Amino acid sequence: MSNILYMGAAVAFEEKSAWIMLVLAVTTYSGYLVTVWRSASDTALVDVPYIAPMLWAIGISIGASIVIHIALGAFSERFKDQRDREIYQSGERIGQSFIVIGALAALLLAMAEVSYFWIANAVCLAFFLSAVLSSIARICFYRFGFPR
User: Fold this and answer.
1) For the chain, what is the domain count?
2) What is the pTM of this model?
3) Which pLDDT band, with edges at 50, 70 and 90, does 4 fall under?
4) What is the rounded distance in angstroms from the CA atom of residue 123 to the CA atom of residue 10?
5) What is the spatial distance between Cα 37 and Cα 33, in angstroms, rounded to a whole number?
6) Domain span including residue 81
7) Residue 88 burial by CB count (10 A; 0-12/13-18/19+): exposed, middle or buried?
């Protein structure tokens, strides 16, 4: 009864979860980029202290996700059927492709002996893109149908 209605149908908990993950990924990564970019105004980008802002962005994203999902779970029916499981698994498989791409990019950057800044940011970007792509895929599956 507290579900948000979309075109006459209740929005599934899992779709709401995908929206939460998408918004959190975009906002926390954008906040990280803005913080690092502002710090680079008077120094080279690779010399910017990036570790603390990156850890804060990751921590805020995880913490906010936990809190928001707990609140959402308290006020939503959480019924998961076979379709929800298939959508979740397919979305995760799509998103995980960026984890592999990020790991390969980090490996190549390490082999080229580039700065730790670029290696860490390649991995962080891969996690961000994985979360975004996975969430978008899941939302699209819910909105436009799951391909069989």
Assistant:
1) 1
2) 0.84
3) very low
4) 36
5) 6
6) 5-144
7) middle
| Residue 78 burial (CB count, 10 A) | 12
Amino acid identity of residue 100, one-letter, is: V
Residue 45 burial class via C-beta count within 10 angstroms: exposed 0-12, middle 13-18, buried 19 and up: middle
pLDDT band at 118 (very low <50, low <70, confident <90, very high): very high
Q: CB under 8 Å to 46, separation ≥6 — which residues?
A: 115, 117, 118
Beta-strand pair 9-10/5-6:
antiparallel
DSSP lists the bridge partners of residue 5 as 10
Reported for 2-8, long-range contacts at CB under 8 A and 24+ positions apart, including other chains, are 2/75, 2/76, 3/76, 3/77, 6/143
Rounded-to-10 torsion of CA 56, 57, 63, 67: 130
> Measured in whole angstroms, how far is the alpha carbon of residue 13 from the centre of its chain?
17
Q: Which amino acid is at 17?
A: S
Pick from 119, 131, 123: which is nearest to 62 by CA? 131
CA dihedral 99, 142, 24, 10 (to 10 degrees): -160
41, 20 Cβ separation under 8 angstroms: no
